[in-house]
Protein 1
Amino acid sequence: MTEKIRVLVVDDSAFARVAISRRLNAEPGIEVIGQARDGIEAIEQTKNLRPDVVTMDVTMPRMDGIEAVERIMQECPTPIVMLSALTREGADVTIKALELGAVDFFLKLSVVSPVGNEEETGGLMEKLAAAAGAKLRQQAKGERPRRVSPRPARKRASQIEKVIVLGSSTGGPGALNRVLPLLPGDLPAAILMVQHMPTGFTRSLAQRLNSISEFVVKEAETGDYLKSGLVLLAPGGNHMVVDKKGRISLDQGPQECGLRPAVNVTMQWAAECFGASVLGVVLTGMGRDGTRGAELIKKNGGEVIVEDESTCVVYGMPKSIVEAGYADAVLPLPEIAEEIIRRCKVGSKSVVGV
């Protein structure tokens, strides 16, 4: 018999705590072992009860969800899934929580029914299961997301020698926060980035990453062009494709691997358009998205780097690529940026106009 996932529910609303607990307890693989009404109680209960996963509200009195995440990750690292409102403020705060160590987030559907009906709650159950098996990095006290001083005018290389397709999912925002700041702004590369997120959250992620990177990071729009020193992030709900001239298009075509945006779709177009000049990079994430794309990159002469299991929050997407035999390099997260830089210093001709 499989052991149940033990969950601590944190929310300042008594109604929400009861509603969330009732819905989770209705699932055969979940057991709610405690409730907390603010961040202070969340820290105490996490230390005392040792749950497998914490569901964390964002806005609470005395101590909000952000400070609670930071303290828990410092004092008693525990997988945390944020329950977030679909608002601009909610998106900004959620991205910060993910940077600080929260594993994932789930959108609160309404005040009356925070996690929805049985069908709607399926996504939360999947996230809780993944979080329960997540590998966490204990955050040192006082540690903050890294900041860099951008070079004047974000100096760019004169040409693009590599088109990098960077994909991630569960644990991705934290991983990206540790990779992008290490890439020099004059790297002769353009980056197409796909992070599995719903509509409304990718813009906040792009803005946060832009503030810590020498690359310019923006949410992609139809009509954008690849440029050296530029990261284009696929917007939630849209696949991101590119043509041979480096022009970006967004579409809402069929989901792949149950996802839109999907890493596979962007990798496919990049591989077909730029062949051996494509470098695929896949970081932590659940599922198999990126495997078909990695295969196409390899078939067209490109290269693939994936994150090693030792640093992945969830070793799903990289594992699938490794097992399929498509990885040229398998490296822990702190070594990924250095490997990207090494593989971009080829001195070849520009693959697309800048």
Protein 2
Amino acid sequence: MRLVHSFKFYCFGCAIALTLGCSGKAKHGLLANSVSQSPPFVFNVDPASVGSVTGSVHFTGKNPARKPINMSEDPACIEAHHGKAYDESLIVSPSGSLANAFIYIEKGLEGKFEVPTKPVTIDQKGCWFRPHILGIQNGQVLQVMNSDPVTHNIHPMAQVNREWNHSQGPSETPLSRKFLKAEIMIRVKCNIHSWMHAFIGVLDHPYFAVSKDDGHFEIKNLPPGTYTIAVWQEILGTQEQQITVIPGKNTVTNFTFKGR
């Protein structure tokens, strides 16, 4: 009789052990799944500690002559420019200021930044892409418009993101697209009008700018730290500098490209 009771007790103990073992594995699996599926860290910028970066982009040497564009294949495009149109790949002011350079924080930012809900717009106006250079965050909506009386085609030739192209007639509903990965820079062309092109810089943070006609740029609300800041120009290439941003202060940095 004692032997029977001992056997029953032994089986009961095994059942408890197996139950605990399975329960432990289940909890472990649940924990692993919860970790792997946890949302990415979103960096919250403290407004009280941010700084800014300002500067200018310059060009030295003989100012390049603007190249005329032949739009004779489309009378509506000629009319939009009153018969004279010039390439925008390299725009230098008489004082040497360089417009349409893309400036951005290349290294030093960690974490994920919230994606803006407001879309970035590119328009096809005067048989040009406007603006010629623009920046956007990955996941942010790019809104494509056509303000011209002619049909255009927008064709971002992405290498990291998905390449796509879409024809858009006059007054058609704006297109909405997204780029899901960072990519510097995406060339955009129109398959109908060969002279039309633009560039889009896609970043996983909001710290970028485009130099104005006077070469000036500004990047606001940058968390304090040491960064690599870069400038990209479609003809002249890329330059980099190291900067340190101090809370409540403005860091000034300038770039100079030499003429070829």
